[in-house]
Amino acid sequence: MGEGRTHFRVWAPNAAGLEVAIESDGEVEYHALEREAEGYFSGEAPVGAGGLYRYRLDGRGERYPDLVSRFQPDGPLGASQVVDPGIFQWSDGEWGGLPLKGQVMYEMHIGTFTREGTWAAAMAELAELAELGITCLEIMPVNDFPGPFGWGYDGVDLFAPNSRYGSPDDFRRFVDAAHANGIGVILDVVYNHAGPAGNYFQVYAEGYVSDKHECEWGKPFNFDGEGSGPVREFFLTNACYWVEEYHLDGFRVDATQAILDDSEEYILCALTRAARRQAGKRQLFIVGENEPQDTKLIRPCTEGGDGLDALWNDDFHHTALVALTGRDEAYYTDYKGSPQEFISCAKYGYLYQGQRYKWQKKRRGTATYGLAPAQFIAFLENHDQVANSGFGKRAHMETSPGRYRAMTALLLLGPWTPMLFQGQEFCASSHFFYFNDLREDMREDVAKGREDFLKQFPTIASADVLGNLARPSDPETFERSKLDLTERERGAHRQAYALHKDLLRLRREERAFKAQRAGEFDGAVLGRDAFVLRFFGSGGEDRLLVVNFGRTEHLDRAPEPLLAPPRGREWRTLWSSESPKYGGPGAVEPEGEDGWTIPAEAAVALAAREID
Q1: Cα–Cα dist 151/91, whole Å
Q2: Burial code of 221-251, b = ≥16 C-beta within 10 A, e = fewer?
Q3: 496 in a structural domain
């Protein structure tokens, strides 16, 4: 609109009349909006960028924030603020977005990534992340929620970035700087439910929530019932908004199994179409979390799929944690942590593609035929899994150093898309807990709910453990989850950082490791805890990744074709987790005149070199 004037439009079929309340210096000025068809109201009011406003329904005294507010400077319970998105000057005009292949992801919580917990502080670390080898940041939800801290999955203002982290333009500066450093940014979005505190959806329209579906976190949104058209429009607009006004490179869609929709076109298919149209020539990278492992999500919309690019692979995480810790309780029950499981993850993505699943007492997963390795995101840590360890322990705290180095090599050199969780790259000493303080009267219920969830783990369920869990609402729980980024430069943390940096350099520079093409690698079991992945290159430029999570294996006989070097070549060590640089005991060549010696709890990358 013109200077000092703003156009407002809101869907409020619950109201017979609606006014925008302009708030300034304790004074309130009301301006009636005109009613449109289908329950919408719209009109202009004399307020410009920076002005504060709320809505009043039917002339009643209480005023409510805008559901599509671009910013809530005082949180979800306060007034909305007019934001002019055209003021910010972008410098990323040459940025092309994120293709599917070649990504190295990094999950980040803005409030705990740095001590300051702001966009500005995180922006100062972007060059270091680029130097490490990160190409894609996956930012945990930043839409506004009540309370001083939280994970963000109980957000209620889906268009308003959280004021605790900075202003909307601080967020834009972060994205612009990320692009300048060659890093894309995708946002974790929660489209399955809204948080319980500061939630005004049903004040405006009962039709925002479903009366035919149920969700474990509260009422799901109504994507297929009566009056669902404006609800679908709201979420399609939200996805396009982040792409247009924040230049985001895609999304990680939370708990897609809880986005319930029986429409002819599933809402996520409609959403991916809309977001990609908005992005134009810029490539988006859209990731899903899906507990049942339904690969329909990542098949093309034109083939009956939903058009996402990739899915988190919980199977890889679960088998990896069993291999690292030896514990197979709760949802780890159906995994052995065996060499064959890692080979199958590399070749097929999911391990469960329709087999019976003992823990859930039903079948799990769908077929992955025809899907690319890059469409499966492998990880050893994420926000959920670290917090679910009970005491917020990271994976390196639950296993031996050698085994962890070997598993890190597998993660970062495998054909999937790898993801690190903040601080993993230097084996951070800080734990990561579940923290949440939405409202004082909810604190006990949240703590009790957390305890009840963790009781599925027998090692956590005892009274002495449950009684010592960090309380989600305690500010100290939040503070203890913050990283100390100076650890990158000290002691064992520096060794771990060098390990991750060198492995990501190998992945970036070695064609065999970065190819991510099905059919160009294979694997074989070499022993109880040992296996090999062979990456086939042109002209004999093959690579081996030999991994052993157990005792030293001596192979005086090696009847395994994948161990045979190409004609006229021999295997030589390209990289070893045994290097003292990483805290290892020292590396030796695995193949000798007497056969193969595969070191205990180690990984070795081998190159086929011409025989001198």
Answers
A1: 30
A2: bbbbbeebebbbebbbebbbbbbebbbbbbb
A3: yes
Q: Are strands 521-525 and 530-535 parallel, antiparallel or unpaired?
A: antiparallel
Q: Are the CB atoms for 367 and 295 separated by under 8 Å?
A: yes
Output the pLDDT for position 127: 98
Cβ atoms of 272 and 307 within 8 Å: the answer is yes
Q: Within this chain, do residues 496 and 350 fall inside the same structural domain, yes or no? A: yes
Q: Are residues 459 and 536 in the same domain?
A: no
Q: How many of the other CB atoms lie within 10 Å of CB of 572?
A: 13
From 96, 95, 128, 123, select the one nearest 110 (Cα to Cα). 123
CB-facing half-sphere around the CA of 52: CA atoms within 13 A = 16
| CATH value at residue 570 | 2.60.40.1180
The secondary structure of 310-369 as a DSSP string is: EEE-HHHHHHHHHHHH----GGGTT----HHHHHHHHHHS-S-SSEEETTTTEEE----T
Residues 477 and 547 in one domain: no
Cβ contact 202:67 at 8 Å: no
pLDDT of residue 2: 58
Same-domain check for residues 319 and 345: yes
Question: What's the chain's Rg over C-alpha atoms?
Answer: 26
Do 406 and 549 form a contact (C-beta atoms < 8 A)?
Answer: yes
Q: Which residue, of 505, 527, 556, is where some domain finishes?
A: 505
Where would I find the beta strands (DSSP E) of 400-506?
417-421
496 shares its domain with 593: no
Which residues of the chain fall short of a pLDDT of 50? none
The verdict on 375 and 493 lying in the same domain is yes
Closest CA to 62 of 175, 204, 180, 248: 204
Q: What are the structure tokens assigned to 417, written together? A: 């898309």
Residue 71 lies in a domain: no
Please indicate, yes or no, whether residues 340 and 312 belong to a single structural domain of this protein. Answer: yes
Q: Which residues are catalytic?
A: 254, 289
pLDDT at 1: 52
Task: Answer yes or no: is 447 within a domain.
Answer: yes
CA-based angle 116:122:126, to the nearest 5?
A: 155
119 is a domain residue: yes
CA angle 36-40-44, nearest 5°? Answer: 80
How many Å apart are CA 67 and CA 210, to the nearest integer?
Answer: 18
Cα separation, 548 vs 240, in Å, equals 46
How many structural domains comprise the chain?
A: 3
**Interhelix angle 401-413/491-509, nearest 10 degrees:** 30
> Residue 218 gets which letter from DSSP?
B
Between CA 311 and CA 288 the distance in angstroms is 5
Asked whether residue 297 falls in the same domain as residue 428, the answer is yes
CATH number (domain holding residue 317): 3.20.20.80
- The boundaries of the domain holding residue 346 are 105-505
Q: Which residues contact 373 (CB under 8 A, 6 or more apart)?
A: 346, 349, 415, 416, 516, 517, 518
Measure the CA–CA gap between 20 and 65, rounded to whole angstroms.
Answer: 10
Instruction: Give the pLDDT score at 218.
Output: 82
Say which residue the tokens 């976190």 belong to. Answer: 217
